[in-house]
Amino acid sequence: GQQVMQIPQYQHVQEGEDFTTYCNSSTTLSNIQWYKQRPGGHPVFLIQLVKSGEVKKQKRLTFQFGEAKKNSSLHITATQTTDVGTYFCAGPDQAGTALIFGKGTTLSVSS
Amino acid sequence: DTAVSQTPKYLVTQMGNDKSIKCEQNLGHDTMYWYKQDSKKFLKIMFSYNNKELIINETVPNRFSPKSPDKAHLNLHINSLELGDSAVYFCASSPDRVRSTEAFFGQGTRLTVV
User: Fold this and answer.
1) Cα separation, B31 vs B34, whole angstroms
2) What is the phi/psi pair of residue B32, to 5°?
3) I want to staple B35 with a disulfide (CB 3.0 to 4.6 A). Which of A94, A95, B11, B90 is the partner?
4) Distance CA A81, CA B16 (A)
5) In Å, how far is A104's CA from the nearest CA of chain B?
6) C-beta atoms surrounding B88 within 10 Å
7) Do the strands A105-110 and A10-14 form a parallel or antiparallel pair, or are they unpaired?
8) Are A107 and A19 contacting, i.e. CB atoms less than 8 angstroms apart?
9) Strand bridging mode A85-92 / A32-37
10) Which ranges of chain A does DSSP label H, i.e. alpha helix?
11) What is residue A83's DSSP assignment?
């Protein structure tokens, strides 16, 4: 079945260091979405990428969608303690009826 | 106003009991979902409802049954609870299932079966 894989599963950084999480789908995606879940919280939508090769920025966060629309990455520049949480990528299933989530990358930041 | 609200937030119950989790969205969305998040944070789609019709039913035990009295509500009923059902259950909604637009999640219900 369709799978969305994410690496790494965990990442610990010192405050100020950069962080990247990678997402790879077994199938071509019509779009890819990124969510952030703070500890004890619920997933919150960050962004959606639709076009092949698309790059979008939100302040210190940079999102990329691969040329083949099967992979994506989220890069955080100069992490802060407020960046702590689990970052999920998600793509529509092949029927376009629900989002399939990657297993997430849990980021911890020490000051 | 809370966009997607689910109750209760915490639920502790014994094995074998039957329980329900309620979910309501005030966003006017057409599609609602139930996701299960296990201890490793894996979010697994359980059910999806679009305009009161079940459109996804993942391979979950038939002890789990979604019930949607109207477009704004999707409740989850669980019969004969088992230890392995312990998890966080998230309700979510989205405006358009065809384009799989962004999903809005509720606060989650942490279910503990003892």
Assistant:
1) 11
2) -130, 155
3) B90
4) 42
5) 7
6) 19
7) parallel
8) yes
9) antiparallel
10) none
11) G
If residue A64 lies in a helix (H) or strand (E), which one and from where to where?
strand A61-65
Per the model's pLDDT, the better-predicted residue between B107 and A2 turns out to be B107
Contact across the interface for A37 and B103, Cβ inside 8 Å: no
Indicate which of B43, B48, B59, B105 best probes the interface with A, i.e. most A CBs within 10 Å of its own CB: B43
Q: Do B45 and A43 touch (CB under 8 A)?
A: no
First to last CA, chain B: 34
Taking an 8 Å cut-off on Cβ atoms, the answer to whether B100 and A97 are in contact is yes
By Cβ distance, the residue of B41, B48, B105 closest to A86 is B41
Q: Which of A44-58, A89-103, B27-41 has the highest mean pLDDT?
A: A44-58
Strands (E), chain B: 4-7, 10-13, 19-25, 31-37, 43-50, 53-57, 64-70, 73-78, 87-94, 104-105, 109-113
- The rounded percent of chain A whose pLDDT value lies above 70 is 100
Residue of B30, B32, B31, B34 lying closest to B20 (CA atoms): B34
Contact between A83 and A108 under an 8 Å Cβ cutoff? The reply is no
